[in-house]
Amino acid sequence: MSYVDQPTSPGSLSGRRLTNRNTNRYSVTALFSMAAEQDVEVEDDLARAQKRLRDLKGKISAQSKKNFVLERDVRYLDSRIALLIQNRMAADEQREVERTLEEVDPTEGHYPDDRKLQQYSNLFFLLQSEPKHIASLCRLVSLSEIDTLLQTVMFTLYGNQYESREEHLLLTMFQSVLSAQFDTATEFGSLLRANTPVSRMMTTYTRRGPGQSYLKGVLAERINSLIEHKDLNLEINPVKVYEQMINQIEEETGTLPPNLPRGVPPEVASDNADVQAIIAPRLTMLMEIANSFLVTIIESMESVPYGIRWICKQIRSLTRRKYPEATDYAICSLIGGFFFLRFINPAIVTPQAYMLVEGVPAKHPRRTLTLIAKMLQNLANKPSYAKEAYMMTLNPFVENNKARINQFLNNLCEVGDFYDTLEMDQYMALSKKDLMIHITMNELYNTHSLILQHIESLSPNDKFHLRILTDELGPSPSQVPRKENRTIELNLYSRWETSVHDAQSALMDSVSPADMLYMETKSILVQLIRSIPHATEKRPYNLAAIAERAATTKDATLVRKGIKVKEMLRELEEQKIIEQGDGYKLMQDEVSAELVHLGNLREKILLETKSLEAVYKTICDHNNYLRSQLEQYKAYLQNVRLTASKDKGTTIGVGVVTVGGKERKPTKTVILGPYRFTHAQLEKEGIIVESNVPDNRRPNIYFNITSPTPGTFIISLHYKGREKAILEMDLKIDDLLEKQKDNKHLLDLEYVQLNVPKVLALLKKVFAKR
C-alpha cells in the first residue's frame, strides 16, 4: 500500500504520539500489513508485479534526475554560446563551455577515504531525516545557487520519488519553507508570485515523476484532439482579427478597400461590425473548449499527486493563520496560483516541452491553447481587471465558474496528514538498514560548502548535531572537474541512532503480547497461502491444514514458518483468543480479508505499472531530445575550434582583434552574407513551421540572411523580380536564445512562422564556418 497515494486520516498532534493503545494497535497492524505486501520471501504474481513496479519507479527517479541535469546544461550552453557567436568569450570561458559537454569518465577521479565517507553518511542521514536544515538552507542561498541545491534535494536526497518516507520528509521540508515565506511576506499580493528560490522549488517539485504522470494522463488526450484542427482560428484580439480580415480581402480581390486602412488602433478595430461578427462565435467556442478543459481537470481530482494536494493544503492553512481576514476567494486565488500557474498552465501553453504532443503545434491551435491557459489563470486568480482589454469579453466564463473552481481548489486541500505514517516509516527505515542515495562528488562537496557558508544561521549552537558533524568534516573540498564527477552510492547512517530493537519496542510498547502474537500469526499464514501452490484456490481456508502442509514440505523456509505458526495457533487457542472447533473462524476471516486486499492490490499495481511505463517512455524521449541539443552544441564548438586554428589567432569581429599577441582596432566591420535560402529549402528542413504564402507564389519566394555585426542577423524575405525586400527582420542572438529558454519555439515573420531552435542551428551552421 503506498502511503503517498492513500494518506491516512488526519489526527491531532497528541493523537500522533505512540501513547494510547489504539494508535499503537493501528500502527503495528499496518506494519504487518506492509510486511505482507512487500514480503521478499514470497514469489507469487503479486510479488513479481511489485518488483517490476519498484524497478520501474527506480528507473523513473534516476531518469528524472538525468533530465534535470541535462536541462541545466542546455540552459547554460544557450547563454554561453550566445557570447561565442558574438566573439566576445575569453579562451578560459570557451574551455569551460567545452568541459560542460564532457562525459564523466568512471575511471578518473577518486573517492573520499573511508573515514570521510562515514562522516558524509552521517551528515546526509541527518539532512534527509531532519528536513528543517535543508528548508533553512533553501531560504538562505542565492537564486544563482538554487538550481544546484534543488538538484541535490529533489533528485538525490529525496530522489526516490515513489517512496513514502522520502516523499513525506520532502513535504515536511516544504511546510517549513512555506511557513517562513508567509512569516516574511510584506503584503498578501506578492505571496508565492515572484521568481524566488521558493517558487523555483515548487515548480521543480511538480516536474518530478508523479506530476509528469498526472499531466500526461489528464491533458495529453484533450490537447492532442485540439491541435488536430490546424485551421481552426479562434483569435479574438480585435487588432489581429482586423489585420487578418483585410489581408484576406486583399488576397481575394487584389486591392485594399479605402475604408479599411492598415494599422488602426484597438478601439477602431473592436468597433468594426465585421470584426465583431467574426469574434462572436469564436468567443462561444473558446468558452466551450475552456469548459471542457476545466471539467477534465475537476474530474481528475483523485488523480492529482498527493504531494501537490498537500502543498495546496499548506497554502490554505498558512493563509488562514497569517491573514485571518482573507476571503475564501482570496485564499483560493493563492492555491490556484500554485496549481494552475506553476503546474497546469505551462503544460497547456508548451505541451511539446512536457512531451504531451509530438512537435510544436501549428499556429492556430497554439494560440487557442494560450487563450485557454489565460482563461484558466483568470478563473483561478479572479482578477478585477484583465491585462489585455479583449480578454474581458471572456468574463462570462470566469463569472459562471467562480463557485465551481473555488469548490475544486478547496477539495484539492482535503487530504490527510502523514505524520503518524511518517513516524512508522522512520521506524521501518531504521530496521531496513539499507538507506542509500546515489550522489555525485560535486553534489556532495557543493552541499557541504553551502552548509558551511550558512552554518551560523543553520546551527548557532556548537552542541547541535549539524554543527558537530560539520566541525568533524572540516572545510569542504573544491569542486572536481566534470570528467571526474563520479556518482557514488552513499549509505546513510545516524550517529545518534537508537537500536532497531529499541525503535520497535517504542512502537509496540503498549500493544499486549496477545495482540502481537495474533497479528504475527495472521501475517505468517498470509505468507504461507501466497507461497504454497494453489493454496489460494481452496475456500474457506483450512488454516491448520495449511500450517501442516507447510511444515511437511521440502522447502526449508516453509517448514520453518509452518512449524512456527502451528505453535502460535496452539498458544492463541490456549489463551482462548481463537478456537480450533470453529476452524479458527476469527483468524480465517481476517486472513481472507487480507488476501482480498492483496488481490485488489495486484490489479492496482498492474494498472499503475502500465501508466508509469508511458511516463518512463516520455521521460526517455525528452532525454533523447535534450541529448540531440547537446550534440548540436558539440558540433558547433568543433566548428569554432577549426575556424580558430585556421585563423591562427585572428578573431574576426567588432571590438578588439588580437593578431600575434598584439591588440589593434579593426579597420572596419566585417559584414557576413547575404546567404540565400528558398522557401522550399527552409520548409523541407522544418525551419518554416507555417506559411501564409499562397502555394502558387512559394517558388518565387526566397530569404536572405546577413550578419552586419557579430550576434546580429537580418532575415529578409524577397520576391523574385522585385528589387526591394517585402519584409526585413533584425534579430539579436540573445533574443532567440531567450525565446528558446522560455520554450517560445516560434518566430513570427508575418508571412511565415519559423522554428526558433532550428533557426539557431541554421545560424550556427552558416556563420560559425565563416
Commentary on this structure:
With 770 residues, the chain is an alpha+beta fold. Among the domains are: 207-307 and 323-412, GTPase Activation - p120gap, domain 1 (GTPase Activation - p120GAP, domain 1, Orthogonal Bundle); 657-768, no CATH class. It is built from 29 helices and eleven strands. The strands form four sheets. It has a four-stranded antiparallel sheet with strand order 5-7-8-9. It has a three-stranded antiparallel sheet with strand order 6-11-10. Strands 1-2 form a two-stranded antiparallel sheet. Strand 7 and strand 8 (712-719) form a beta hairpin. Helix 3 (45-85) packs antiparallel against helix 4 (91-100) and helix 11 packs across helix 13 (273-299). The longest helix is centred in the C-terminal third of the chain and has 63 residues, at 585-647. The protein is globular and about 105 Å long. The two termini are 62 Å apart. Mean pLDDT is 79; it is low at 1-27, 498-504, 506-510 and 648-667.
